[in-house]
Amino acid sequence: MLRQGLILTAHRDYAQAMRQGLLTLGNDKTRIDIELDALRAMQLVPQQYELIVLDTMLDAMDGLQLLVLMKQQAPAAKFILVSDVPGETSRAQVYQNGADLFLPRPRTPAALKKALHEIGSLLKQDADGQATDEDENGPLAQLIDVVQTRCLSGDSVLLVVRGKHQSGDIFIYRGEIFHAQYPGKSGEGAFYEMSHWDEGLVRIKTLKLNHVPPRTIETAYEKLLTRAKNLGPLATDMRPSTGELRIVSDEVTSEASVPSVVLEAPPLEEGIEPPLTDHSLQSDISTGGETPLPQVNVHWKVNLMGELVEGSQMADPQRCAFITYFIYRKLADVAVALEVDYFNHMTLMGTHLQQVLVADNMGVRHAVFDSPWATEAIREQYVKWCCEQSF
Amino acid sequence: MAAAFVSHEGKLMGWCANSAISSDNLTFVAETCRVIMSANRAEQRAAQTGVVAFGNRTLVFREAEAGLFMVYLDSPTNEAVLQWLFAQVNPLLESEGIKLEVVV
Lengths: 391, 104
What we know:
heterodimer; A: Rossmann fold; Beta-Lactamase; 3 domains; 11 helices; 16 strands; B: alpha+beta; 2 helices
């Protein structure tokens, strides 16, 4: 039974058709993601998928190279390569690179049906293999105990967790829990729920983590484990089949903080002119293009790995880079859910401050403005300036 | 293309969407937007309204005491569009006892 799959292709129509087909190989909990951008595909966590269907040639990237990279990260996943140029040479090359199945791109409903039949057979073989060898998914163990041991040891590992009905991943990096996810949920909430799957007794496969995972959990592991234990049976059904989410009982809710946010600022003063641009304060920022950089409180750029590339007037550069990368990752999740390409720009408007984030294939720029003078024209000027820097 | 109001407990209080977007996906997107807002509050950069451009499509969300309202549009937006949008939405939500603070 297919639980979670990924389609990597530059062909949108084919992706939709294949997605619909793959959904028929699973049940109502099956999730099939589509990624149309090769660069963004490299940011995904392939371990979460049991099936990855990718093209031999993506936009600007060789699918075979991507296959090798992803196979290293997710050796348990099944990889299917789809080619527009079917032939024995391509077929041999694909299998040589570690693919489990080679398919010519299905261009008719009949061809798609045939392809799905082959994929179904591949998954069935895998399921049969797993039925005879339960250790493939690791031994049964208490999840909390395993996490505690790994954290105490300062390990960097990926725990692939399989319960009776669901599966997910927990990323531990240098002894801290960085990220937890399962289809439809990520972060602390996901960790709490996973810790109570099957009363905590699940199959756990441990993989060495070779890269820094995205961080969605900031809470120290001791506190996280204590909360998970204290939640008890309340957490066992926090995401029932209706899809309705329930809040973790002792988690600080937004209700406490929202009133202070809503009431925090004085009314905007009209007629305030934006201060003149002080170029001397922005000497660290690269300049290019015709549009001048508007006056910003603070401004920085991170690359797609979350590393600070440049910036100006930052009180805490690491913190700035972190929040930008955090939002970048979150918006990547949103883009997948909405089945759209990556975001171009984002504006966050508050009573005191406004923020603009602008993304391109190389990174994300992030600027903070004072609300009283951050007009639409100023924000647009910043977006334009960013685009010119990209060129 | 879609609109939804999600309580802070993550409950989808009301929604409408074309067939391409499921209610589960809307809940997930709203939860993610709420997390982004929460992270910004923690950084002392509180925001109430977010506008994200995905090509020609736009996701607009606004947080209130009762929860998070979001709308997914098949067009770009500007301030005039946002003002018009919330002029339509606010009375509807207020009739259900939900007040969205206007800060734009």
